[in-house]
Write a structure and sequence with these properties.
Blueprint (H helix, E strand, L loop, with lengths): L13 H6 L1 H8 L3 H13 L4 H16 L7 H12 L5 H6 L2 H24 L7 H5 L2 E6 L5 E4 L5 E4 L3 E6 L6 E12 L8 E5 L2 E5 L3 E6 L5 E7 L2 E5 L7 E3 L4 E6 L4 E6 L12 E7 L1 H12 L2 E5 L7 E6 L3 H12 L1 E5 L6 E6 L1
Parallel strand pairs: 5-6, 15-18
Antiparallel strand pairs: 1-4, 2-3, 3-5, 4-5, 5-8, 6-7, 7-10, 8-9, 9-12, 10-11, 12-13, 14-16, 17-18
Helix pairs in contact: 4-7, 5-7
Length: 349
């Protein structure tokens, strides 16, 4: 397709991208030409980045559910009908990424309901299991961590600013959707593979433990602690990689379609499950984001005029103690607002 055919994409909203066959082809069947176009288009339209991520996640999730009995045209119509009335550009601009992500998750579940209804309307058969299955969503906001027991007895340690969704009953597969970071301890069941879908990467295990970090707009990072897992891009079914060494690491870039396998230098990547905050050669953006999520605060930074690469470990320490230790090394002062302790100001010297 000629680039001129894409000229109206800057007018598109979430439901338009969902219904567009060329966009769906790029998500599900990427090639060098489509990757080049969308990277160039996103660079020219950065305000659409969150909308593109939400649309892409919905389509990948739907593909993972394999609605094969619905043809492409019907899928497009169902997808476009999910959101109903078009939102204006100003409406989208006012939406936070959390609202877009929540809307995306709602769209996935609604589409599944619509697609099931579509199939039921063409057959006299009714699967009684579907009627009793509900989707459960567990979400932690900033400053929160939780432990979740899944229907099969597996355990999920859910980090702050993260969410998982899963069926109330597992049928042939144990399928989890993750946004953010979680550590999984999986009960072995060879008849029911354990699958985690995170930003277009599927991690598969039978009985093992592993960590996944999959924040929106960032690369997915998977680390193995025990057992054996496989990782594969949803859009590249043949690109399955096996990780069976402790500390094995997978990095997946959804927009590049790149999946790399390596290893961690140590096993610090899941210490957060023991409430230990770890920084490894972290720049200050990474430090700021981690502290805001860990302690549920808002940090304002002033006069940062040099590169920071900080390494440190903090076992269950207060925010004030953490800031004091980092400040001693990186030479800044900080002030906690007395009227609102969630507001922190950091000033570099």
């Amino acid at each position: 397709m000629l680039e001129a055919d894409y000229m109206d994409y800057h007018e598109y909203e979430l439901e338009d991208f969902l219904a567009d066959p060329e966009f769906r082809n790029w998500v599900l069947k990427p090639n060098p030409a489509s990757h080049f176009f969308w990277k160039k288009w996103l660079a020219a339209n950065p305000s659409k980045r969150d909308t593109i991520f939400a649309a892409k996640e919905i389509i990948l999730s739907l593909k993972f559910h394999s609605c094969n009995s619905i043809d492409d045209e019907d899928q497009g119509e169902l997808l476009k009908s999910i959101l109903g009335k078009r939102k204006t550009a100003s409406d989208i601009k006012r939406m936070t990424w959390r609202r877009i992500a929540m809307q995306a998750a709602a769209c996935v579940l609604l589409f599944l309901g619509l697609s099931i209804g579509h199939r039921m309307s063409t057959t006299a058969e009714l699967n009684p299991i579907l009627a009793s299955v509900k989707y459960i969503v567990k979400e932690n906001f900033k400053g929160q961590k939780s432990r979740v027991t899944l229907p099969d007895g597996s355990t999920v340690f859910l980090n702050n600013n993260s969410r998982i969704s899963y069926a109330s009953k597992f049928a042939n597969e144990r399928e989890i959707f993750l946004e953010g970071e979680a550590f999984f301890e999986v009960k072995k069941d060879s008849a029911k593979p354990f699958l985690v879908n995170s930003n277009g990467l599927v991690t598969k295990a039978l009985g093992t433990s592993f960590n996944i970090k999959a924040h929106k707009g960032k690369k997915v990072e998977v680390g193995l602690v025990t057992g054996k897992i496989s990782v594969a891009s949803v859009s590249e079914d043949k690109s399955v990689k096996i990780i069976d060494d402790k500390g094995g690491k997978a990095i997946y870039d959804a927009f590049e379609g790149q999946l790399d396998i390596s290893a961690y230098e140590d096993m610090d990547f899941y210490k957060w499950t023991k409430r230990i905050l770890v920084f490894k050669a972290a720049d200050f953006d990474e430090i700021k984001e981690a502290l805001e999520n860990w302690y549920d605060v808002d940090i304002t930074v002033e006069n940062l005029n040099r590169k920071i690469t900080y390494t440190g470990e903090f076992p269950s320490e207060s925010l004030e103690n953490v800031l004091e230790r980092i400040a001693f090394v990186e030479k800044f002062s900080f002030k906690i607002n007395e009227e609102n302790e969630r507001e922190i100001t950091i000033v570099f010297k």
